[in-house]
């Protein structure tokens, strides 16, 4: 896009890059806001169907305009700030939550080459940026100067830290298997498993981690059965109790944007992302972004299905699952994956001086520097390297 603005509009490189970046941000952020509105409608419809109700059906055809009507309603309401609250932090907290929910999308690949920032450490960026969301909740609970919001903030901090540890170890397993932190490289690495299927979830060694990641995603987004931060029977409305008008709406939007993000990460890391489910040439005629959206919608349906059917955990059950089950399991799986890779991918039949290493590797989106050798057994033996002319014989 930068080249387009340089050649067609005549901009300098700096202004062309800046303009293309702004356009890319808007192309992602504006449809995401529309998707959040539609996802809220879909969520309510799924709950209603599972409870044998009709759900939203009055505002607009089939109730499709209900989310926009709700947005207009909260926009016209008065913003009330409690007298004893810390006004600055009270108003800043929902902005943090909403903003953090958007910035992670910068590194999500929607198709080959269709990503705002194709950085080599994309997975680390996702983990770091998504971890910032807890600050908005903690600030909301503390700045409200109210008992129940503060209880909710403490719960949220403990819950998100507990499950982010497990998520981190799951991601280490993915990085070890792929050999890259780049999300596009991770998706491309899932192509052609067993010669006909795409997705790490079909690998028996990584399938258990896909289940751990999915359940941790529910806890990370405070979705049922892990919605202890806003348990209405205990904490009124949790950290949102003192909020109204658009400050409340920002939390609502941020929560569903995070849900869509976690659905996207589940699809990207374990189920092939923008790749079709089967490695069959005719399926690649469908644009990758369509496959990605289909997988996101499937995972969102499962998120809603769980919320409509599974009862809320007690807090001790929540902590026990995170620290006594997921943490040891995911840590053990890191050792298991490492051991399998050491036995299957690393050779030890020649001296370190006789080994050669990959300097760069190519993907459809460009060239990337390979990881530098760390251990004496890294690389391959020189006599095993086949030149292009030898390979054609």
Question: Could you please describe the fold and organization of this structure?
Answer:
With 393 residues, the chain is mainly α. The protein folds into three domains: 1-69, no CATH class; 77-345, no CATH class; 352-391, no CATH class. Helix content is 60%, strand content 3%. The strands form two sheets. Strands 1-4 form a two-stranded antiparallel ribbon. Strands 2-3 form a two-stranded antiparallel sheet. Helix 2 (13-50) packs parallel to helix 12 (288-309) and helix 3 packs across helix 11. It is globular, with a radius of gyration of 24 Å. The two termini are 42 Å apart. The model has no long low-confidence stretch (mean pLDDT 84).
In short:
The protein has 393 residues and is mainly α. Helix content is 60%, strand content 3%.
Ranges with pLDDT <50 over ≥5 residues? Answer: none
Distance between the termini: 42 Å
Give me the oligomer status: single chain
Given the helix and strand composition, which structural class is it? mainly alpha
**How many alpha or pi helices?**
14
Helical content (DSSP H or I, runs of 4+): 55-70%
Radius of gyration: 24 Å
Spell the H/E element sequence: HHHHHHHHHHHHHEEEEH
- Across the major sheet, the strand order is 1-4
Main sheet summary? 2 strands, antiparallel
Taken from the alpha-carbon principal axes, the silhouette is globular
Number of DSSP-assigned strands: 4
- Which whole number gives the mean pLDDT? 84
> What is the number of independent domains?
3
Strand portion:
under 5%
